[in-house]
Write a structure and sequence with these properties.
This protein is of the alpha/beta class and about 375 residues long. It folds into two domains: about 130 residues, 3-Layer(aba) Sandwich (Cytidine Deaminase, domain 2), CATH 3.40.140.10; about 240 residues, Dihydrofolate Reductase, subunit A. Strand 12 and strand 13 form a beta hairpin. Helices cover about 30% and strands about 20% of the residues. The chain has a nine-stranded mixed sheet. A five-stranded mixed sheet has the order 2-1-3-4-5, sandwiched between helices. Strands 7-16 form a two-stranded antiparallel ribbon.
Length: about 375
């Protein structure tokens, strides 16, 4: 007789289905569901998407039909047990006769966490929790940060040399992109493709106007994967120096999209603001005077959270990287190291750290290779702890 699939195998299937919803579920969590009958055969499976409205567990129940009775639901997140955009999924599971639920983790929303499990147990459904929990928590860390604080989860990504430089002296002098070991870019194709996947996993990308002036990037999601809403392209530009002919402005003007958002200060020129808005760019004023007028990063995060932006990827230069770290808005770092050393006093450091007077310690480090480059991932705080 063939061996029966284990709970872990089914949970891995549920996690894979949940990952298929990346880019399609925000501002809600990524959820995948698998229903197996008493013989270990999959009779229903589904991925949640925000546009599809119905939750993964309900879609899986619909696929299973009457065969769901006596079956087991495998899911990466606690079943939805409260009235929201849809009725409680726990009601549907109980009515369908699901005998057992195996979930990776509880709902990170403190207002409802555990409620779904309680409802299921009260109805006589066997509940088990904790399988592949670390993977499940990692998948929904953006949702967890957002639902617990109202603020987006912030990842700071940077490509650099082994001596932590993001550009050579030529770049500081304004001569285009640095010429590293791989040619025009510091890192190679594999690292850049990985970084584009980070863009796809994010609701917004954030840079300073200096990055636009130096590189004129488009800041688009070029992963090739589908997403429900466009990647919001955010530029911090205190005095609205953003050129009207820049690629990012022209894309907003050409495609009439509202996915370019500029944060400026009260001192920015009103006529310039109107010019940008006429070209399809959204402009929002935010100011703090300490010591000079500049855009306040915590205020930016608060504004983005109010727009239901759950995750932000910072791809800035030295000044923005330093300001983000100094203001303690960063949750996670992705640092890509190329086998290159620039050296020299004019090379640009990864972050301008003059304003940081404490040690920055990364936790839960993971190191992987991306072609000839190395990628280091580390957390500054636990998104489930606040």
């Amino acid at each position: 007789m063939a061996a029966q699939p284990s709970d872990e195998q089914f949970l891995r299937q549920a996690l894979a289905l949940a990952r298929a919803g990346i880019g399609l579920a925000s501002p809600n969590p990524h959820v995948g569901a698998v229903i197996a009958d008493s013989q270990g055969a999959v009779i229903g499976a589904a991925t949640y998407t925000y546009g599809g409205l119905k939750h993964a567990e309900v879609l899986a129940l619909e696929a299973a039909g009457a065969r769901a009775r006596g079956g087991t639901l495998y899911i990466n997140l606690e079943p939805h047990g409260h009235q929201g955009r849809t009725p409680p999924c726990t009601d549907a599971l109980i009515a369908a006769g699901i005998r057992r639920v195996v979930a990776s983790m509880a709902d990170p929303n403190p207002k409802v966490s555990g409620r779904g499990f309680e409802q299921l147990r009260a109805a006589g459904v066997e509940v088990e929790m904790g399988g592949l929990e670390a993977e499940a928590r990692r998948l929904n860390e953006g949702f967890a940060r957002y639902i617990r604080s109202g603020l987006p989860f912030v990842t700071l990504k940077s490509a650099m040399t082994l001596d932590a430089k993001i550009a050579s002296g030529r770049r500081r002098a304004g001569v285009g992109r640095p010429l590293g070991f791989t040619g025009e870019w510091i890192t190679g194709d594999a690292a850049r493709n990985h970084a584009h996947q980070l863009r796809h996993e994010s609701d917004a990308i954030l840079v300073g106007v200096g990055t636009i002036l130096a590189d004129n990037p488009a800041l688009t999601d070029r992963s090739g994967s589908s997403r429900r809403r466009p990647l919001l392209r955010v530029v911090l530009d205190s005095h609205l120096r953003l050129p009207l002919e820049s690629r990012i402005v022209q894309s907003a003007a050409t495609e009439q999209r509202s996915d370019v958002l500029i944060f400026c200060t009260a001192e920015a020129d009103e006529s310039r603001k109107q010019q940008l808005e006429q070209l399809g760019v959204r402009v929002q004023r935010l100011t703090v005077k300490d010591p000079a007028p500049r855009v306040d990063l915590p205020a930016v995060l608060l504004a983005l959270g109010q727009m239901e932006i759950t995750s932000v990827l910072i791809e800035g230069g030295s000044a923005i990287n330093g300001a983000a770290l100094a203001s303690h808005i960063v949750d996670k770092l992705w640092l890509y190291y190329a086998p290159v050393v620039f050296g020299g006093g004019e090379s640009v450091p990864f972050a301008a750290l003059e304003g940081i007077d404490s040690v920055i310690t990364l936790k839960n480090l993971r190191l992987q290779t991306c072609g000839e480059d190395a990628a280091l991932e580390g957390y500054l705080r636990d998104p489930y702890a606040e």
